[in-house]
Amino acid sequence: MEDKIQNSISTDTLYKEYNWYQNAVPALVQKSCDGFFEENFKVMLIGVSQNINCLMDNESCFVTKIRINQDYDMFFRMTDKALDIILNLALGQSKNKFNINKISDLEAKVITTFNDFMFETLKSLLTEPDGGQLKRTNFDVIHLTFIIKEAEHYNNKAGKIIITLPKALIRPESIASSAVKFTETDFPTAETYAKVLVGKTKFSLFDIKNLEIDDVVVFENSNINNLTLNINGRDLPVKLNPNMDLLIPDYNDGGNNMPDANQNIWDSIEVEMSAEFDAVKITLGELKDIEEGLVVDITSLYDNNVVLKVENKPIASGSLVIVNDRYGVKINNVIADGAAPKAMSSDVPQEQEPVQEEEFTPAPEQEQETASDDEEFDYSDFELEDDNI
Question: Which has the least CB within 10 A, 8, 62, 211, 327?
Fold first, then answer.
C-alpha cells in the first residue's frame, strides 16, 4: 500500500519538475492579480504536490470549479485568510470579522470573477491530453499552493490560494543533469577538512609568557586513546590506537615553575590553553568508521604541526608527544611575543620608540613559519590597572 501511495505522489518526478512550475506558473498568477486588483498583492509559490496536498491543513476554503472540457476541470481554492485580505482591499474594511460561512453574494461574485480571470490567464499552460489517459473519475492532479499578501511591507497578514490542474493537460519539463553523477562508491573516497583537537588545560600568564623551545605542555584533560574531530563546528570523539613511539618519560622539573616571589597578580591569572592540529583532510569513509565507533589508526596526524591557542589565538606550535597517559606538545616555535606588556614598561623613554619598531620586525624565516589567519595572542588583553594590583 505504501508503495502505491509513493508512486501516486511521484516525489522524485516532482523534484525534477519543480523548477518548471516555479518559472511558469507564479508569473501568470501574479499577472492575474495585477490585472484584476492592480498591483496591490504579492503571490509566491510555496508548494507543489500531486494528488495529495499536505498544505491544506483542514482549512476552510472557498472553492471555484471551472470546466476545461467535458473530461477535465480546474479548481481554485482560497482560504478564509486569503478571502479576508482580498475582500478588505476590494470592498473596504469590514466592521465585522470575516466569516467564510456567511460570505455575501457580492463577495462571492468578486472572488468567482477573479478566479475566472486567473483561469483565462493560466489556459496558456494547458495542452491536449495524450491518448489513453485515465478516466475522468481517477485522473491525477497537481496542486500548486501560493501565499498571497498585500504588497505593502507593513502588512504581514497572508493567506493561501491552491490551484489544482489536471496533470494530463500540462507538460512540465524535467531538469536533466549534464554533469557526471555521483555513485555510492564515490562517497567513501570523497574528502572533507577537519580540525583535530588534542585537549585543553589551565595555564598562568606567567607560564605562557615564559614558554621556550623544547618545553613540554601536558594537557590534563586529554587521553591517549581519544582525540576529538571538529567538522563544521560539530565535535566527534575519535577512538584510536596511540603511537607509542611518541612516549617520553614523565618528567619532574623540581618546582622550577613555582611562582616567583616578585610575580604580580597579572602574571598569576590563569587562562585556558587548547591544542589542535593544522586542518587535515579526512575521507567520508573514514568519518563513517569513526561514527560507528571503530578504533582507527591516524598515525599520519602525528607528523603534523600542533598549534597551542589561548582565546583562539596562536601562541606557540610544536609536535605531539605522550607523557604517561596524556597528550602533550613539545614546543618548536613560540609565536606570541613574551615581552612584558607596554603598561608594565612605562618607564621606557619615548625616544626609544625607533628601537621598539625594529624589535617587532620579524625575520623572513620566522614570518614564514608563523603565517596564520588567526590574530596573535596579546598579553595586554589581561592587563590590570594599578588600583587592582
Answer: 8
